[in-house]
Amino acid sequence: MRRLFAVLSLLPSLVWAASPLGQIEALSAQVSPFWQTLRPACSMALEPKLQMAVAERLSFLDEHLIASELNDSLSAQTKDRSNQWRSPVWAVREKLEKAALQLDDRESLREYFFKLQTQTPNPERSGLVADIQYMSEHLNFALRKELWKTCHALGLSAIPVVQMETAVEQHWLHQEEKVRLQVKRELAAFYFYSFRQTSNEQLQAFVDVAQPLTPWVDATAVAISEHFANLRAQLLQVPLTLTLDAEDEPFLEDRPWPASPSQELLQP
């Protein structure tokens, strides 16, 4: 059931305009919704006393984990004027993907997702779909990786940036393959479903226009990492508001009881 919700959460990001800016805008639109889904888990993963200490940091992330900040950052760093973006093939892809996103088809998509978990598609077609989904998969994975790493930085004390990045990377490595496999499966289900009536020849045409854009995709993934690394460095400058536990409080200097025992008789 968890995977079904994940499938639906990814789908709005898949129908991307055939331009670098369109791709970046669609990717950036996921930041705030995904962070709001992740936020409770980030807080609950901390020790109890830290959960109360990160309120200001959570507010900081609420303010900065928004579409416009990532969009502005990536748009300034990653540009591609390749003629591949102007290919009419993108319009065909967009039509097929939009049709797969229609609300009436969601139940069929769920069924298709589960079918792919038990049946092995034709190897040639699998390879074509894998090549087509590279852009979506690589950028979606990069975004989720950096959001998770930012989550792991939430309760860290103010330490050198290099040390912080090493710490969050170690946390991330424990879940990396699980997240990678989940993104791959969910996107594959969507693309197999979208292109279920499309010939292999047409799929190859999709591949031919997408593959030359790989350098742009890789550069955008690097830009995503740099954007979030800068954000984490700022996050650690937001102070943790730790409070003393009861057992850590000093003893009172004056005793709260009389200095000498009472001479009154005990009442029966």
Question: Gist?
Answer:
By secondary structure, the chain is an all-alpha fold.
Explained architecture:
By secondary structure, the chain is an all-alpha fold. The chain has one domain (2-238). Helix content is 66%, strand content 0%. The chain has helices spanning 2-10, 20-28, 31-44, 48-51, 55-64, 67-77, 89-100, 106-118, 123-132, 134-152, 161-173, 176-194, 200-210, 214-235. Helix 2 (20-28) packs antiparallel against helix 6 (67-77), helix 6 (67-77) crosses helix 14 and helix 7 packs across helix 12 (176-194). The longest helix is centred in the C-terminal third of the chain and has 22 residues, at 214-235. It is globular. It starts with a helix and ends in a 33-residue tail after the last helix. Mean pLDDT is 85; it is low at 1-9.
User: SSE order, as H and E?
Assistant: HHHHHHHHHHHHHH
How much of the residues is beta strand, in percent? under 5%
Which shape, going by the Cα principal axes?
globular
What integer value in Å does the Rg equal?
A: 26 Å
Distance between the termini: 65 Å
Would you identify the regions where 5 or more consecutive residues have pLDDT less than 50? 1-9
Number of discrete helical segments: 14
Percent of residues in helices: 55-70%
SS-derived structural category: mainly alpha
What's the main sheet like? none
Mean pLDDT: 85
Count of strand segments? 0
Quaternary status:
single chain
Q: Number of domains in the coordinates? A: 1
Summarize the topology.
Elements: H1 2-10, H2 20-28, H3 31-44, H4 48-51, H5 55-64, H6 67-77, H7 89-100, H8 106-118, H9 123-132, H10 134-152, H11 161-173, H12 176-194, H13 200-210, H14 214-235
